[in-house]
Design brief:
By secondary structure, this protein is an alpha+beta fold. The chain has 2 domains: 46 residues, no CATH class; 75 residues, no CATH class. The protein has 3 helices and 4 strands. The protein has a 4-stranded mixed β-sheet with strand order 2-3-1-4. The longest helix is centred in the C-terminal third of the chain and has 15 residues. This is Glyoxalase-like domain-containing protein. It comes from Corynebacterium variabile (strain DSM 44702 / CIP 107183 / JCM 12073 / NCIMB 30131) (Corynebacterium mooreparkense). It holds the Pfam family Glyoxalase_6.
């Protein structure tokens, strides 16, 4: 992942966005400001995640804020969701982040693996959503389907619904 140098962009609400500006006063290249997460739908997320860590050289992600350990986070979830979300990550933060989520049973339709592309990482305030909408518009124009947008306050572990 390459981070943009220089001052952070700011939202300019006084004029319409120009090409390449995406509603920001500083141009943002949303194609390089992103992180990719590969999501696997599976029956036993913890077991699948554990089996992937060693071959990839990955470890556990940091425990979410306000929790001492992953077990405490897991027990804070509703009972039906406990053990459902699981992840591992590259300790150097370079490789993609596999995410494993429980599905109720074998799917007959749909993807068992999909990519979550994070756009506008490192931006603040309304800037990430502006960058995300610009990227979504370009992707939709090329025929990509739009999934769900889940707004999660920074520093809070969110729950995605697909």
């Amino acid at each position: 992942m390459r981070l943009r140098s220089g001052p952070p962009p700011t939202i300019d609400r006084s004029r319409d966005a120009e090409p390449g500006v995406v509603g920001l006063t500083t141009p943002v290249d949303t194609t390089t400001t992103r992180q990719v997460k590969i999501t696997f739908d599976c029956g036993e997320p913890a077991a699948v995640a554990e089996s992937r860590k060693a071959p990839l050289g990955y470890g556990d992600p940091p425990v979410p804020p306000r929790f001492d350990c992953w077990e405490a986070f897991n027990s804070s979830l509703p009972e039906e969701d406990q053990g459902s979300p699981w992840a591992c990550q590259d300790p150097e933060g370079v490789g993609p982040r596999p995410f494993f989520q429980r599905v109720p049973g074998p799917e007959t339709v749909g993807n068992h693996v999909h990519l979550d592309v994070r756009v506008g990482t490192g931006l603040r305030g309304d800037e990430p959503i502006v960058a995300l909408e610009a990227k979504a518009t370009r992707l939709e124009a090329s025929g990509a389907p739009r999934a769900h947008l889940v707004r999660v306050p920074q520093g809070v572990c969110g729950r995605r619904v697909w």
